[in-house]
Amino acid sequence: ILPYGSSHSVSFPPVFAGVSCMMLFLPVAVLGLMVVCSQEDASLMSPPSLPALDSLLDPHVFGMVVLWFLFQALLYVLPVGKVVEGIPLKNGEWLKYRMNTLHAFVLTVAALGAAVHQGVDLGYIHSHFLQLAVSSLLFSVLLSVYLYVRSRWAPQDQLAPGGNSGSVIYDFFMGSELNPRIKGFDLKYFCELRPGLMGWLVINAAMTLAEMKLHNLNYPSPAMILVNCFHLFYVLDAYWHEEAVLGYMDTTHAGFGFMLVFGDLMWVPFTFSLQSYYLVYHPSHLSLPWIVGIVTLNVIGFSIFRKANSQKNAFRRNPSDPTLSHLKTIPTATGKSLLVSGLWGLVRHPNYLGDLIMALAWSLPCGFTHILPYFYVIYLTTLLVHREARDEAQCRRKYGSAWDDYCREVRYRIIPRVY
Ligand SMILES: NC(=O)C1=CN([C@@H]2O[C@H](COP(=O)(O)OP(=O)(O)OC[C@H]3O[C@@H](n4cnc5c(N)ncnc54)[C@H](OP(=O)(O)O)[C@@H]3O)[C@@H](O)[C@H]2O)C=CC1
Ligand SMILES: CC(C)=CCC[C@@H](C)[C@H]1CC=C2C3=C(CC[C@@]21C)[C@@]1(C)CC[C@H](O)C(C)(C)[C@@H]1CC3
Question: Where, per UniProt, does this protein localize (predicted)?
Answer without folding.
Answer: Endoplasmic reticulum membrane; Nucleus inner membrane
